[in-house]
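Entry 12.
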Amino acid sequence: MNIDVGRQSNGQGHETVHAGFPADQSGLSADRIQMFCSDRGRNAQGDDTSGPGSAAIRANAPRAAVDRMIAAFTSFLAQEMGVAEDVVEFDGETFWAPGSNLTPTMLEAMEMARAQGRTDLQRHAARAGLPDSSLPDGANISEIVIDPEAGQTDQVRYTVVDDFGNLINLMSAEGQVNGGAAQGLEQTMLERVVFDAEGRLLTVSFLGCALPRASRVPMIGITTEPVPLAQNQLGMNGSGEAGAAGAPVAVANAVQDRGIRQVDMPFTPSRIWEVLRDVSEAAEQ
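Predicted 3D structure (tokens):
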């Protein structure tokens, strides 16, 4: 089975998710499913990889295609089994019908059709749309310790509770949240664009950027509370930007809990120290 996806995979795990779902639905082994990402020679439609929608939206198309495959082979196999079409069932692994000893898998059904020259059963296409967008929800809690003498802010605990609806692959979803939260935490604490007095950009490479470091990111506690999305036949929500979107707000709220009412990101030690000094001086007046 070949699947053409109009979004490029940049580490999101599209290959695992998009192949895993039709494998479960069709009974085919995942290693028999090949995925092509943003190949304009095969698929003229597509868009950018952004927002939490690759699996939640695009997995509906393979589902529709698998449903069409099942319907097409049900009609074909009914004739082979000598039974009425409406008694043929597909249980996720094999086709079967009362009164027949034939129990072919999807792959075996394809081979039977090929042997009879039924090339019309070798290719199936379907379109699927959604009445509404992906609507993920969740909460992020940041617990920090601030050293007022140095302005150093340490992230000691970070907890996430997310509702992504039904999950195809829990490990992949948790990886999205972990990576996004790590990027969001470092963006909040250190990452910034720096210009000199003449307006020349100084942070021109990764050597000058504060990239996330494992030593600065605590173990992130992730809990999922799935509520199936009614607008999606699969009940799925997106998860792509949940970690990165929640982290800056959670950390900013934690910093403000120290009595700091206004400070711009990133919350560098020098910036936090200056604000705490101003707060202390204002309290003494």
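Annotation: The first strand starts at residue 2 and ends at 5. The first helix runs from residue 14 to 26.
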